[in-house]
Design a protein that fits this description.
- With 396 residues, the chain is an all-alpha fold.
- It is built from 18 helices and no strands.
- Helix 8 crosses helix 17 and helix 15 packs antiparallel against helix 16.
- It is globular, with a radius of gyration of 23 Å.
- It starts with 8 loop residues before the first helix and ends in a 14-residue tail after the last helix.
- It binds iron/sulfur cluster (2 copies).
- One iron/sulfur cluster binds next to helix 2 and helix 3.
């Protein structure tokens, strides 16, 4: 197989936030310190090498790129300040932009001012679009769906979800095709027979259950040095509650819609705090607001090496998640306060507009890692020696 060097790769990854990779002289300190390198004596140095010599295809087809949780331990130990942890983060931003064929992700990452203006205009568009169909603001009860028709919100939400699924699947297919070709994993490896299905099932559980939802390696390996930090301030916990909160809110929204479809409860009807869907939404909202607030504080304070440098893309995602969580609570407060606060209607409109924007932009910004990482970890688990009859294939 011929490997073509892309001499512009190094400069490209630097645009996405990497520091001076020429400083790396392959001493191996980062590999020695990285908690994830126990079975791979070249991780993460191999990624640095790919970037240095222009091995673009090898970089974009590396499942290992997504194993890294950006703990920053390698950067702390690097004698030349080449910042390998930040290189890995920049390479993942570059990968997200490369998997997306529309060019939107690339522009969001490389033109942060344009991306910010675009994000503001998109939220304004959603708000104005829904406001054009607005009805009266009842002063007897906070009738949010009299103000903005429920049907309009649901139909707009369905269109947004369809667009996101199309854009997301295109990017994931691009990524999976690259990794699969390199690893020698095809449809038959994954689905061809009972043994393959059993192996794939175990890999799926490992990537989605243990690693993504359970944050296993982040929790056990990347945080092993941080036992002095209170559990509620540990990075894995903050990351986990943010993820769980986001997923919980998506689930609560879907269930609320489902209950309305089957005629059990109309959307937006006030229900007691213990009502399961409301309870789920409340707990998930608390998690999301806590997680994003802690992340913002840690980034503002540059609390450790992993957040010493923040790219504009980091802020965009955090701010959108935080606004979605806080306005969701504002809406809940308005729904259950005595009297009818007029501001509740505007918080509702703002909340819906930002939530739709967040979902629509997901495939084009850092949030995309919530899908790309489990896919890559699925390939990692397929090749794991502890997974019987593991998939093996050519390594670049
Ligand atoms: S520790 Fe620094 S200089 Fe050494 S291999 Fe890693 S990135 Fe290169
Ligand atoms: S940031 Fe952490 S997980 Fe990532 S390569 Fe460095 S030491 Fe390993």
């Amino acid at each position: 197989m011929t490997t073509t060097a892309d001499l512009g790769l190094y400069g490209e990854i630097q645009k996405f936030g990497a520091t001076d990779m020429t400083a790396c002289f392959s001493c191996g300190n980062c590999t020695a310190i990285c908690p994830l390198s126990e079975n791979d004596a070249t991780f993460p140095r191999r990624m640095i090498r790919y970037a240095q010599v222009g091995m673009k295809d090898a970089l974009l087809s590396s499942k290992e790129l997504w194993s890294c949780y950006h703990c920053g331990e390698c950067s702390e130990s690097c004698p030349t300040d080449a910042d390998p942890g930040e290189l890995m983060a920049a390479a993942r931003r570059y990968a997200i932009a490369s998997y997306d064929r529309t060019g939107i992700a690339r522009n969001m990452y490389l033109r942060p001012m344009l991306g910010t203006v675009f994000a503001i205009l998109l939220a304004a568009f959603f708000a104005l679009f829904m406001y054009t169909a607005h009805g009266p603001q009842s002063s007897e009860s906070l009738a949010i769906f009299t103000f903005i028709p429920e049907e309009l919100i649901h139909n707009t939400g369905i269109v947004v979800m369809v667009l996101v699924v199309i854009a997301g699947l295109a990017g994931v297919a691009n990524m999976a095709r690259r990794i699969g070709r390199r690893e020698g994993v095809g449809w038959r490896t994954v689905f061809g027979g009972r043994a393959a299905l059993a192996r794939s099932g175990r890999a799926l559980w490992s990537s989605l259950g243990r690693e993504s939802l359970g944050q296993m390696r982040y929790r056990v390996e990347c945080e092993s040095e941080r036992e002095s930090v209170a559990w509620y301030r540990r990075r894995w916990f903050i990351h986990a509650v943010t993820l769980w909160g986001f997923l919980g809110l998506l689930l609560a929204t879907g269930l609320d819609y489902g209950l309305a479809l089957v005629g059990i409860k109309a959307t937006g009807t006030p229900v007691p705090i213990w009502y399961p869907v409301r309870l789920l939404g409340t707990v998930a909202g608390i998690m999301l607001v806590y997680g994003t607030t802690m992340m913002i504080i840690n980034r503002v304070r540059a609390a450790d090496r992993s957040v010493a440098r923040s790219a504009p893309a980091d802020w965009t995602l955090l701010v959108l998640l935080w606004i979605t969580g806080v306005t969701g609570f504002g809406l809940e407060l308005a729904l259950y306060l005595p009297g009818v606060p007029a501001w509740g209607y505007w918080v509702f409109l703002f909340h819906v507009a930002v939530a739709m924007e967040l979902v629509l932009l997901a495939p084009f910004m850092k949030l995309a890692h919530a899908v790309y990482r489990p896919v890559a970890l699925f390939f990692v688990a397929l090749a794991d020696p502890s997974n019987p009859a593991r998939a093996t294939g050519p390594q670049g």
